[in-house]
Each structure stands twice: as structure tokens, then as C-alpha cells.
Amino acid sequence: MRADLERKGKPIGVNDLHIAAHARSEDFILVSNNLREFERVDGLRLENWIT
């Protein structure tokens, strides 16, 4: 995942990378107010409960 994001020129922080990897591997919906960062990850289901 990290290599793919770096290859695309869209890296994310290491902590967000761990969160995204875990959520995607378990097919969880990741709830965050920081969608802009996580939208870079293919196959990650996201929700923002603030907006």
C-alpha cells in the first residue's frame, strides 16, 4: 500500500497508513474527519460522521 501511494505521488503519514491498512484488510468502514488523506487509498471504505 505504501509503495503504491508513493508511486502515485500521494503518500500518507505512517500512522494513517497503519489505520488504513488495518481497515482495508478487515473490510471495515473507516470513520474519520480526515477523508482527504484516506481517499488516496484504493479499496478503502470511508465515512465522515461530522458532515
CA radius of gyration: 10 Å
Low-confidence stretches: none
Please list the strands of the largest sheet in the order they lie side by side: 1-2
Oligomer: single chain
Structural class: alpha+beta
Number of structural domains? 1
Annotation, overall tally of beta strands:
2
* Arithmetic mean of pLDDT: 96
Measured distance between first and last alpha carbons = 27 Å
Briefly, what is this?
This protein has helices at residues 2-7, 14-25, 35-38, and strands spanning 29-31, 45-47. The protein has 51 residues and is of the alpha+beta class. It has a two-stranded parallel ribbon.
How would you describe this structure to a colleague?
By secondary structure, the chain is of the alpha+beta class. Helix content is 43%, strand content 12%. It is globular and about 30 Å long.
